[in-house]
Here is the input.
Amino acid sequence: MKKWLAIAIVTLAACAVFTGGAFAQSKKTVTIWNYWETPKHQETLARICKDFNASQGKVEVVTKYIPFADFKKQLSIGAAASELPDIVIIDNPDHASYAGMGIFADITDKLASWPDLKQYFAGPLNSCKLDGRLYGIPFGSNCLSLYYNEDMLKAAGVKPPKTWDELKSVALKTTKGNVHGFGISAVQNEEGTFGFLCWLWGSGNTSFQINNPNGIRALALMRDLVKSGAMPKEVINWTQGDTMNQFISGNLAMMVNGPWQVPTMRAQAPNLKWNVVTLPVGAKAASDLGGENFGVVKGDKVDEAVAFLKFAASPAEMKTYINDFGYIASRKDVADGQFANDAVMKVFSAQMASAQPRGPHPRWPEISDALSLAMNESLTGIATPEAAAAKAQKTIDAIVK
Amino acid sequence: MNRIKRFFGQGNIGYLFVLPAAIYMLLLVGYPIISNFILSFQDVTVMTLNKPHKPFIGIRNYRTLLGDGVLLPSLVNTFVFTVCCIALQFIIGFALALFLGRDFSIARPIRGLLMIPWMIPMTVTALMFKFMFSSNVGILNQFLQACGLIGQPIEWLLQPRLAMLSLIVANTWIGIPFNMILISTGLTTIPPELLEAASIDGANRRQSFFHITLPMLKSVIESVLILGFIYTFKVFDLVFVMTNGGPVNSTHLLSTYSYKLSFTLFKYSQGAATANILFLILFVVSIAYLKFVYDDKETD
Here is the structure.
C-alpha cells in the first residue's frame, strides 16, 4: 500500500513539473548583456525592453549589466562554458572577434527582406560583418572631434586649428604654466588605439598600415606635440574620462573626445566656454567610429532576438532613446534632423561622414595592441617613430598576412 | 567487501578520513593545474576557442613567448620586484618590530595603526599611489618642488625605471606590517632571561642581537621570507591598477602579462603558458619552504 502511494505521489509530482515547464516555455526570456554604467543609459535600455514586452505576448526581454572591464572576459568565459545571453550590446571593433570565435549567429538571411537595412550608414553596418555575412546590427554611433576652450584660444589670439601644422602651433601658443595646449587619451589599450587611429587614418593609411612615410608622420605628430611641451606626457595614463576632467578643470586648451561627454560637461562645468570643431585634417579628413552593436548569440532564441532588434531599430522607437544615449543614430532617416537645435552635436553629426570603423578583423585586439604600443613608444621617446612603426608593422603583418 | 574491511581494520582507517580533503584538492586544485598545462600545449585563441578539436602544438607557445620580447623582461621584472620588495619590507619590518618590542606606553596603538596598510584593499592603495605619483598633480612632486629639491616634475609613472621603482615603493609600504607582525611574534618567544644572562656575561647589544636574537628567530625569518616571496611574486592587482604594465610594457610582471595575453589579446594558450612559468617557480619555492619547515621539526 505504502509503495503504491509513493508511486502515485512521484507521478503527480512529475506531471506538475512537466506542465510547469510547459507554462514557462509559453513565454521565452531573452537576455541582453550590456556594459553601460550611467543610470540614464540603464533606465533608457530598460524602457526599450518594457516597450517591446508590452508590444507582444510571446517574448520577455530582460537586461543584465556587466562592467566594461569584465565584459570581454565574461563573454569569453561564457563562450567556453556555454553560458551566454541571447543578445550582446558590444563595442563595435570587438564584434568581428566574437563573430570569428563563433558565438554570434549569422542573421544575413533573416534580415535580407528587412527594408530598413538600406537605411544604415556603411561604416557602422560594416562593423557588424565578418567575411560579408551579417552578425548583428548597429545600436548607435559616435565619433571623435576637437573640443576647445574659447577663452584660452581667444587670449592666445588664435583660431581652432584646421590642419596638423596649425594644431601644433595653436597647441604651443595656448600652453602656459600649468595649462597644456592639447590632450588626448593615449593609454596602452583599446581606448588609446581609438585616440590614435584618427591620426593614422588622417595620414592616408588604413588600420593595417603603419610602416610607411604616412604612418611615421602620424607617430611623429604625437611625439612632436609632447616634445614641444604642448601635450603632457601623462596622456599615456589618461582615459577619455580623465582627459575630459582635465579639460573642464581648465588644464587643457584643446582635447579630442566624443559626444558622450557632452551631457556630463554641460552639467559639471556650466560656466566653461567651450565649443567643438571637426578634427584637424592631415592628408584627408578622418575620425574614429565608436559606438555599440547588437550581436545576436547563436542558440534557440535567434528568431526572438531578431524580432527585438527589428523593434528597437524601428525609426519610431529609435527616436525615443537615441538622444538620451548621446549617440548619433546609425540609420540615415533618423540621423537626419536628429540635432536640429544643438550646434555642438551637429558638429559630431558632420564628422560622422569621415568616421571609419576599426578593423574589422577577428584578431583586432592584437592589431590594436601593436598600434597603441607604437604610439606609446614614440610618445614617451622610448623608440623613434621609425623604429616603433617598423616593429608594429611586423606584428600586424604576422596577423593579417 | 571483506577485503575492504580488512584493509581498514589494519590501522589504515586514516586514509578514509583524508579522503574528502584529497578529493577536494584533486578537483579544485589538481584539475585546474593539469588543464592549464594541457591548454598551454594547445593552440587556443579567439578562432579555436569554440571548436571541438584544439590543435596540439607542443612547446611552440613557450618558444613564441621567449621570442616575443615581453616575457623575458617580465620575468626579470618579477624577480627584481620581488627581491627589492622583500629586502626593503623585511629590513623595515624587522626594525619596527625591534623598536615596538621595547614596550613603551604608545607601542601597542602604534603597532595597531601600522597594520592599516595590510588591511586596505589593494586596489584602493594602488589608486592612492597612482595619484600620489602623478607627475603634474601628484602630491609627491608638489612636495618635492615646494621644498626646492627638484626643479622639473619627476615623471614617476612615465619612465620605465621610475615606474618600477614606484611600484616597489607602493608594495613595500603594503608589505611592512606583515613582516613586522610575524617578527614581533617571534621576538616574544625569546626568553628575556637569555638576553639578561648575556648582558651579565658582558655581551653588548650588537653581540646579543647577532648571536641570540637572530639565531633564535631563524625559523620565523625563513617563514617570513618565503611566504613574502610567494605573496610578492604573484602580485597582480597593484600593478594592474597602477601602471597596467606600462609605460610601453616595461612594468609587466608574469601575472599581469598572463592576464593581458588571455583576456586582452585572447591568446589563451600563451596566457596559460605564462601562468605555468609563474606556477613552476612558485612550486619550487613552496617545496623549499616545506623542506625548511620539515628540517626544523626534525632538529627540534
Observations:
- Residues 145-278+363-400 of chain A form a domain with the D-Maltodextrin-Binding Protein; domain 2 fold (CATH 3.40.190.10).
- The interface with chain B takes residues 72-73, 76, 79-80, 97-98, 100-103, 178, 187-189, 232-234, 236-237, 251, 362-363, 365-366, 369, 373, 376-377, 380, 382-383 of chain A (CB under 8 Å).
- The first helix of chain A runs from residue 2 to 25.
- Confidence is low (pLDDT under 50) at residues 15-24 of chain A.
